[in-house]
Amino acid sequence: MTALKSLEDLFVHLLKDMYYAEKQILKALPKMAKKADSDELRQAFEHHLKETEGQVDRLEQVFELCGIKAAGKSCPAIKGILEEGAEGMKDAKDPDVLDAGMIADAQAVEHYEIARYGTMIAWANQLGMGDAANLLQQNLDQEYGADRLLTDLAEGRLNRQAA
Ligand code: ZN
Ligand code: FE
Ligand code: FE
Ligand code: FE
What we know:
The chain is mainly α and 163 residues long. Helix content is 85%, strand content 0%. The radius of gyration is 17 Å and the shape is elongated. The model has no long low-confidence stretch (mean pLDDT 94). Zinc ion (ZN) binds next to helix 1.
């Protein structure tokens, strides 16, 4: 790993980390949508897939603002969260149980993203990078929205069906 000597180095590290994470999420969401039994859940995954494409674009804009080439850096955290989700998808034998499990795993992803974007926004502001903070805030708002929708779906019906 390259030496992290400044807050800017830390910021760039997280930027590369999240760029990698969003790209992994782009690959996972279509699989989750395909497996979803509930139409609402499938639509939620498909909607967030579209949003995630926009998030990758915004991260590329942030790279540009930093004057560096967009490049991902392998993130063991998102790999682990997605691996755990994929395992659950293999093991679930009932469609309602599968949906409830996928919601739980998707929320773990959203919460990871919320944690990371929250930090990145604080650092961007500290570094005087207001435009970058704005772009990241748009991503963060979408992660909050996705998380809320998943909660609504789970509490509305899907958990009950799985019980
Ligand atoms: Zn990292
Ligand atoms: Fe995202
Ligand atoms: Fe990470
Ligand atoms: Fe997300």
